[in-house]
Specification:
The complex is a heterodimer of chains A (467) and B (362).
Chain A: H1 2-6, E1 11-22, E2 25-36, E3 40-44, H2 51-58, E4 66-71, E5 74-75, H3 81-85, E6 88-91, H4 103-109, H5 123-135, H6 151-164, E7 169-173, H7 181-197, E8 201-205, H8 209-215, E9 218-223, E10 226-232, H9 233-236, H10 239-246, E11 250-254, E12 261-265, E13 278-282, H11 289-298, E14 301-308, H12 312-320, E15 324-327, H13 335-347, E16 350-353, H14 363-375, E17 379-382, H15 396-406, E18 410-412, H16 415-434, H17 439-443
Parallel strand pairs in A: 3-8, 3-9, 6-7, 7-8, 13-14, 13-16, 14-15, 16-17, 17-18
Antiparallel strand pairs in A: 1-2, 1-4, 4-5, 9-10, 11-12
Helix pairs in contact in A: 4-6, 5-6, 13-14, 14-15
Chain B: H1 3-37, H2 45-54, H3 70-104, H4 117-131, E1 136-137, E2 140-141, H5 142-162, H6 170-193, H7 199-207, H8 215-233, H9 236-242, H10 246-251, H11 256-278, H12 284-296, H13 300-324, H14 337-356
Antiparallel strand pairs in B: 1-2
Classes of the chains: A alpha/beta (467), B mainly alpha (362).
């Protein structure tokens, strides 16, 4: 695997060509990775991809059908359980405990691999347990019965037990399942510190890709029991990988504050039937971002412009593969771009204008909308913010807005109303196609939807619809 | 409580454990002596002590022989003492196997009879009672021998049915135990139907009791119980770890399958030996470990020995009650101790459970 060449020396844990089966069903196939001191490896993948199985085979619970797992060059399945337990601790998914031991008892059980059969816990054992409990902020719970603790408290006690084992390798199987955000961050910070300062190897199964991105030094992405990608986070956590493994579109970026990758999954594409209507968005500064995704999901074909390169809406459009008429960054719209945009608009059956602020740079977009109306293309204006407060042109934009209204643009108060009205026009388009003679009557700009023969009637008609 | 107090309290725990064991042993001795006094023939305490002291080398020189009458000596040493020792042995055995079963199964509702020990013994005993019990081996009657091997056979059956490859999943054991128990009890019912005159002795054996216990019978089962119990004691800390779940116990260095198998074999052997001596005395193996856990906590290092002594005390007391409770009505009628354990145990158990249920998760 690519992973191996990253770490030429100091190898401690070596998984080599492991294949695991439940009965005859292959759960893991040809999985290899090398992990060295101080590595924090995230094991990622969808449900049933073999993450937990991989941890089980490493923790000596499920002997691989093929392949070996070497701990400092010794096959862990030839080592004694207690010798492995001195070096490796596991925080399991299921933490129910049979009897009501106190939290301290539970943590002290982590000392078991270091004690002989009839030895009682020494002061040293207690000191180690106490330190582990203080680190996980559970010492104050030490005398409470474990069954009375909340899920998060119990989880922290279990992590303290793992630390009391004084392991060199820590395996975490979705350790954050029961924890709230602050506990997640505290525990992960703690584990990260141990990883860095004590040179611990940490292998953790994560469902939360962002948590993984924030703390791991590297990652293994599993798909159907095979390694799909392994290596540094930048290599593994790409939107292409996430798309092919999790079947989810996601935006992956470096976060400005944490400087770690962050993953923003988008809800899976809705399977709305494709619509005939194509929509051209006039937007900018992020006002069109949400709408682009919604309109695509609804089945419309979408174009946009004019947008400056580097504008948020431009980046979204790039991501969603929406055709855009672009202008150079931070530059006013030139004659040439304006023409290109109008050409694009002519192909659209509807124009939607978002609540974008207007300055001298993008005033042309407003003029383009008016031209569209004059060409007979209906224009919908999402009027969420009063134009006066987003007019940075000393009234020019406001005046153009009034003109838009006059010429019959449909003003809507928000996205929902817009979508309803678009559906109505879509329906009209369909009917129009069936009876071509009606087409102009029904799509004639300026004609209110209330007069139409479609039985859609919004509760409150958008201001200025009637003329 | 501040932090250092928690630590020192933790270390005081060891001496607290020693104290618990000491007090329980004292209680057992007192119980035995009081229980020796209980019975149809009145024998005062000084005489009882004299008779006992006479049995001990060196001490016997100081005993006033007039207190140790031969008739009383015979009653104490040949009738009452064997019963009491049998009560101690069986009570201790059922409790020790009960602790082990509950620990291995992670379930406080498990008991010594879970893996077919009781039903197997019942089949063996009923069958031998039906065929006639003339034969004896090492001082044991045929009934005892048949019960012992019946119990081991049933356990062997359960274990092998439940085994999946090299592993023995707990749920499989529980369910197979249930199935085998039902099957065996249906055989017992069948034997009862065709028993005729021996029905009474079969029913009596099934309830369990100590009437007519002989020293030789006690000596015959004692080695199994002592060896099995001591062997199980080696694994007390593993029992603690098993409470965390088999996977976690494994990750903490316990060889789970090996420990589990050994513990179940030891516990079943101990239970089988006890059952062959006394018949089926119910509830002790379930309740004594349970009650002891409610009082002193779940740590098997103290729970195991404390349950053993508590079980011994409990059964000796129950047997004393069984001997006298019916005397006002009919001087020769003796209730089987099995009835008393049930009658006394169940309400007490419910009270404890209700009282402590908030700190007790099933």
């Amino acid at each position: 695997m690519r992973y191996e060449r990253l770490v030429p020396s100091l190898v401690l844990l070596n998984v080599d060509g492991v294949e695991c089966r439940y009965g005859s069903f292959k759960v893991l196939e040809n999985v290899s990775l090398s992990v060295k001191e101080g590595d924090f490896v995230g094991i990622l993948g969808p449900n049933g991809s073999g993450k937990t199985t991989l941890l089980k085979s490493i923790s000596r619970s499920l002997k691989p059908y093929k392949g070996t797992i070497l701990l400092n060059e010794a096959d862990i399945y030839s080592l004694k359980g207690i010798d492995v337990a001195r070096q490796m601790a596991v925080v399991p998914q299921d933490t129910t405990i049979g009897f009501s031991f106190s939290a301290l008892d539970i943590v002290l059980m982590g000392r078991n691999p270091h004690m002989s059969r009839f030895q009682m816990e020494s002061e040293k054992d207690l000191a180690i347990a106490r330190k582990a409990m203080e680190l996980t902020n559970t010492w104050h719970l030490s005398e409470r019965p474990i069954n009375e603790l909340s899920g998060g408290e119990r989880q922290r006690v279990i992590i303290a037990r793992a630390l009391a084992q004084e392991p060199k390798i820590l395996l975490l199987d979705e350790p954050m399942t029961h924890l709230d955000i602050i506990n997640q961050l505290e525990i992960m910070d703690l584990v990260k510190n141990l990883c860095v300062n004590e040179k611990l190897i940490v292998l953790a199964v994560f469902h939360d890709l962002n948590l993984a991105a924030r703390y791991c030094t590297s990652a293994v992405l599993l798909k159907n029991g095979k390694i799909f990608s392994a290596g540094s986070l930048d290599e593994v956590l790409t939107s292409e990988n996430i798309k092919s493994v999790f079947r989810v579109n996601a935006i992956v970026k470096k976060h400005l504050v944490t400087n770690s990758l962050f993953v923003l999954p988008l809800s899976p594409q809705k399977t709305s039937p494709a619509k005939k209507c194509s929509i051209h968005l006039i937007c900018g500064a992020g006002t069109g971002t949400a709408l682009m995704k919604i309109l695509l999901d609804e089945g419309y074909s979408v174009t946009a412009g004019v947008l400056n390169v580097l504008d948020t809406d431009f980046e979204t459009a790039q991501f969603l593969k929406i055709p855009v008429t672009t202008e150079a960054p931070f530059s006013p719209i030139t004659e040439k771009t304006q023409k290109a945009n109008l050409a694009m608009m002519r192909k659209a059956s509807t124009i939607v204008l978002t609540s974008v602020p207007f300055g001298h740079g993008n005033l042309q977009n407003l003029r383009a909308s008016i031209e569209a109306l004059e060409m007979g293309i209906p224009v919908f204006v999402v009027d969420e913010v009063p134009i006066e407060s987003r007019d940075f042109t000393n009234g020019t934009a406001t005046a153009l807005f009034a003109e838009l209204k006059r010429k019959g643009a449909v003003f809507v108060k928000d996205q929902n109303e817009l979508l309803s009205l678009l559906n109505v026009s879509e329906e009209k388009m369909r009917l129009a196609k069936e009876a071509p003679t009606r087409i102009f009557n029904h799509l004639k700009p300026g004609r209110s939807h209330e007069e139409s023969d479609i039985t859609f009637k919004p509760e409150k008609a958008a201001g200025g619809t009637e003329k | 409580m501040n932090q250092d107090e928690v630590e020192s309290a933790y270390f005081r725990r060891t001496s607290r454990w020693k104290l618990i064991i000491l007090l329980l042993i004292l209680a057992l001795i007192v119980t035995v002596i009081v229980s020796l006094n209980v019975g149809y023939a009145p024998i005062p305490f000084p005489n009882i002590l004299a008779i006992l002291a006479k049995q001990i080398p060196f001490l016997n020189n100081f005993v006033d022989s007039s207190l140790a009458l031969p008739r009383d000596s015979a009653i104490i040493l040949q009738i009452r003492l064997p019963r009491i020792i049998a009560g101690i042995v069986v009570g201790a055995a059922l409790s020790s196997s009960g602790v082990v079963y509950q620990g291995v199964f992670k379930n406080p509702m498990a008991d010594s009879y879970l893996l077919g020990v009781s039903s197997g013994a019942a089949v063996g005993a009923s069958l031998s009672l039906l065929l006639g019990a003339g034969f004896s081996l090492f001082g044991l009657g045929l009934v005892q021998v048949a019960a012992f091997f019946g119990a081991l056979f049933a356990m062997f059956l359960v274990y092998n049915i439940a085994r999946v490859g090299p592993k023995v999943p707990i749920t499989m054991l529980l369910l197979c135990g249930l199935a085998v128990n039902f099957f065996m009890y249906s055989i017992v019912s069948l034997l009862e139907v065709i028993a005729g005159d021996t029905l009474h002795s079969i029913v009596f054996w099934l309830i369990g009791g100590f009437s007519n216990v002989l020293w030789s019978q006690i000596w015959a089962v004692l080695p199994f119980i002592i060896v099995g119990t001591i062997a199980a004691y080696f694994y007390v800390r593993d029992l603690n770890l098993l409470a965390l779940g088999e996977e976690t116990a494994h990750n903490l260095g316990v060889n789970v399958e090996k420990v589990k198998t050994r513990l179940l074999v030891f516990a079943s052997m101990v239970a089988a030996a006890a059952v062959s001596l006394s018949g089926l005395i119910g509830f002790v193996g379930l309740m004594v470990p349970h009650i002891t856990r409610l009082v002193i906590g779940p740590d098997h290092r103290i729970l195991f020995p404390a349950s053993i002594i508590t079980g011994a005390i409990f059964l000796v007391v129950c047997d004393a009650v069984a001997r006298v409770i019916a005397t006002p009505f009919a001087s020769t009628l003796e209730l089987p101790v099995g009835i008393i354990t049930m009658l006394a145990g169940a309400p007490f158990f419910v009270i404890l459970l209700k009282k402590k249920k908030q700190s007790y998760a099933l």
